[in-house]
Amino acid sequence: MPINLLPQEFKPKGYVVTVSHTLRKVAVLLLTVFLVGSVAILGAFIFTSQRIKGSNSMQEELKTEIETLEATEQRLILLKDRLDKVKTIEDANNSGEEVTVLGNVSDLFSEGITPKGILVSKGLTQVSVYADSLANLSHFIEILKGSGQFANIALVSFDYDPEDGYTAEFSFVK
Question: Is pLDDT at 44 greater than 70 in this prediction?
Fold first, then answer.
């Protein structure tokens, strides 16, 4: 049994003792709730920060992957454009007959006639020649006319330069 050395008038009243015991229990309970709450908030903070770090690293990986895919897409678009251009060229320049006409004309070049320029496109073959004399040019025209390989020979242009000689441009239809 405890010994109370305080005089009786300083002895706490019964309701004060009960309130103090109740307050002590409430304080312990509140301290426990506070500690448990603090630990829960700290745990939630750590968990959330870990998820944020994971999300940031995932975001960086996705950005890198998107950049790679964009570069690949750009290369595919350029490749598609090139293929479209190749197809356009193949469709437009199917000039097999015109090349044959050019071959036939080149076989007829005689001495004194030098090719200066050639234009081959769909439905058109033009040959520009240089001749050192009018006689050589006339002889070449006679050879073209006498070959019988062309349905139509058109003289597109004719020039004379005293230093270079004669330049004539012909258009051929087979």
Answer: yes
Q: What is the DSSP string of 51-95?
A: HHHHHHHHHHHHHHHHHHHHHHHHHHHHHHHHHHHHHHHHHHT--
Condensed to tens digits (0 to 9), the pLDDT of residues 94-141 reads 555 555 656 666 666 777 777 787 777 666 778 888 888 888 888 888
What does pLDDT average to over the chain?
Answer: 83
The DSSP secondary-structure symbol of 26 reads H
**Taking the domains of the chain in order of start, what are their residue ranges?**
13-92, 96-173
CB atoms within 10 A of CB 69: 10
The rounded distance, in Å, linking the Cα atoms of 10 and 77 is 96
Q: What is the CATH number of domain 96-173?
A: 3.30.1360.100
